[in-house]
Amino acid sequence: MKKIYSVCLLFALFACSALASFAQSAQKQPADSLWSVRLDEIRQVAAMIPGRRALRINVLKFAESRRSKKFSVQGAPDEPSVQARTVFQVVFADGTVMIDSGMDEQVHRFFGRGVIEPYYPDAAKQVERALRSARAIIITHEHGDHVAGVIRTPFVAELAPKTLLTRAQIQALESDPQMPEIKITPDMASHYNVVDYEKFLPFGPGMALIKAPGHTPGSQMVYVALESGREYLFIGDTAWHMDGVRLIKGKDAPWIQEDQAALLAQLEWLNELYRTEKNVFIIASHDDEERKELIAKGVLGDGLE
Ligand SMILES: [Zn+2]
After folding, report:
1. How far is the CA of 249 from the centre of ligand 1 (A)?
2. What is the Å distance from ligand 1's center to 145 Cα?
3. CA of 101 to the centre of ligand 1 (A)
4. Which CATH code of 3.40.980.10, 3.40.1010.10, 3.40.50.150, 3.60.15.10 fits the domain covering 4-299?
5. Chain-wide mean pLDDT for the chain?
6. What is the pLDDT of residues 183-199, one digit of tens each?
7. pLDDT of residue 9
8. What is the pTM of this model?
9. Domain range list for the chain
10. How much distance in Å is there from the Cα of 84 to the middle of ligand 1?
C-alpha cells in the first residue's frame, strides 16, 4: 500500500512539474511562434500572379502631427519630431493601387487632441482624386489616419467595392473603432471587399499582403517588387519612426494599446532585413525623415499621379 502511495506521489509530482514547465513555455513563447515570416516566402507569394510588375511608387504627405520623439521610439530624447500623415500609390503600366486612404480634417483633429496641427487641403484633394482613379485600395491597418478616407467620404459608394479590408480590420471597425467617427455597421461593411487569409495573400503581380497583427489586430504589411527589381515593404505603423526598426525599440505612447510581444518579434525581423537586404526598402508610414530621404534618392516619387 505504501509503495503504491509513493508511486502515485511521484507521478503527481512529475505531472505537476510537467504542467509547470508547459505553463512556463506557454508564457515565454519563442519569438519564432509569434513571427515566423521569411522574405523568400513573401517573394514566392508575390510571384504567384502573372503579369507586368509595378513601375514606381509615389508618396504624399497630407497632414502632420507634431509629437516628441520619445513617444515614437522607447528611450528616444524628448525632442520635437514630425509624424507625417501619408498615403502611397503603386503605379502599374495600366493602373494604380493605393496603400492607405488618408483622412478628413475632422479625424485629423482627433489626433491633435486639442492642438491644431497642419492639414493640407490641396494634398487631401489629391489623395481623394488618387483614390477615385485607383483600381484598388489596400489598408495597412484600421486606424483613422489610414482608413477614414474610404469611410468618411462622399464617394464611399464608389470606393468601397474596390477597397480590400481584412476580416480583422472589419471586426475592429465594427466593434472597437479607434474613434466613433470611423465606426461602421455590418450593412456598411457589406459594401467593402472583405478578405481573410492566414499568413500571406498574393495581391497582384509582384505584390503580397503579410498578416502582421501587433500594432492593431488588423495590421498587415504590404510587399511590392517593381519591374526594375527594387523591393519595398510597407510596414504601416509597426514602427512610427525607422529608429524603432534600427534600435528594435517599440513605441512609448500610453494612448495606444499594442501586442508588445508580437510587435517586438516583428521589429527583430525587420531589423535583420534592414541590415542584410539592401534592395528592400522598409517604409514606415509616419517617418518624415525617411520620406524626404527616399524622395531625394528617387526611391519614392514626390506626389500622386
Ligand atoms: Zn498611423
Report:
1. 17
2. 5
3. 11
4. 3.60.15.10
5. 92
6. 999 999 999 999 999 99
7. 46
8. 0.90
9. 4-299
10. 9
